[in-house]
From TrEMBL:
Belongs to the p23/wos2 family. GO terms for biological process: chaperone-mediated protein complex assembly; protein folding. Residues 211-223 have a biased composition (Gly residues). It comes from Rhodotorula toruloides. One of its GO terms (molecular function) is protein-folding chaperone binding. The gene is FGENESH: predicted gene_1.554. GO terms for cellular component: cytosol; nucleus. This is BY PROTMAP: gi|472588470|gb|EMS25942.1| wos2 protein [Rhodosporidium toruloides NP11] gi|647396262|emb|CDR38286.1| RHTO0S03e07624g1_1 [Rhodosporidium toruloides]. It comes from the Eukaryota. Residues 224-240 have a biased composition (Acidic residues).
């Protein structure tokens, strides 16, 4: 049986000054491809041979038969391979165009005509005049990079920065550095670790020691600066 021509998906970028942005994105759709495949790039010649593995689905009669894949193509112009990656769905390749120019290739292959096995990769394609807007998304191409910021570099949830200085709520003298030295971070159990670590009895004792609820700076302070030091504030809650 003759080898099967795998489906190819392609998109491109162009640049006269930046080789990293003067490229072809090529995806060879060959599911369960054996890593022993071969892919060669020589000028504008692109040759591929490979074989997929047979896969039987568990619990059903469905199977994926082994297939032989191959193609031998002449691209529109000369390229060189930049990088590639093998996934369960096939091979992803980035090819650098050797000729640096701002204009897009009019097609992937040298010869004009429709090839039913070659399709535009609309998930990566952008119009020629919109390339700058798409530059930030070009670094991944399914091969790593990008992703969420490193949470460790952000200092963890305990370092969210605002808890130490809530800045002078009326009558409280500042939750962070004021309130007679109340340690809000220790009160909260070391940061945003959840309410499970909060000791309410300790919190009330710290509030009492800080003078909140009594004294001139407390919530219940007397008007006009009158001495209300006899007011001990609310009693501490009993520990569960």
């Amino acid at each position: 049986m003759a080898p099967t021509h795998p489906e190819l998906l392609w998109a491109q970028r162009s640049s006269e000054t930046d080789p990293e942005r003067n490229i072809i994105y090529l995806t060879i759709n060959a599911p369960e491809l054996d890593p022993s495949y071969t892919l060669s790039v020589d000028g504008n010649k692109l040759k591929f041979e490979g074989k997929s593995r047979e896969v039987a689905s568990k619990g059903t009669a469905t199977t994926l038969d082994a297939k032989d894949y191959a193609f031998d193509l002449e691209l529109f112009d000369e390229v060189e391979e930049a990088r590639r990656g093998l996934t369960g769905k096939g091979v992803q390749v980035v090819l650098k165009k050797k000729k640096a120019q701002e204009e897009y290739w009019p097609r992937l292959l040298k010869e004009k005509g429709k090839n039913s096995r070659i399709q535009t990769d609309w998930s990566k394609w952008v119009d020629e005049d919109e390339q700058d807007e798409a530059a930030a998304a070009d670094d991944d191409f399914g091969m790593g990079g990008g992703g969420m910021p490193d949470m460790g570099a952000m200092g963890g949830m305990g370092g969210m920065g605002g808890m130490g200085g809530m800045g002078g709520m009326p009558g409280m003298g500042g939750m962070g550095g004021g309130a007679g030295g109340m340690d809000f971070a220790s009160m909260m159990g070391g940061g945003a670790g959840g309410a499970g670590g909060m000791d309410f009895a300790k919190m009330m004792e710290q509030i009492k020691a800080a003078g909140i609820g009594g004294g001139e700076e407390g919530l219940g302070g007397a008007e006009g600066g009158e001495d209300s030091s006899d007011d001990e504030g609310p009693p501490p809650l009993e520990e569960a």
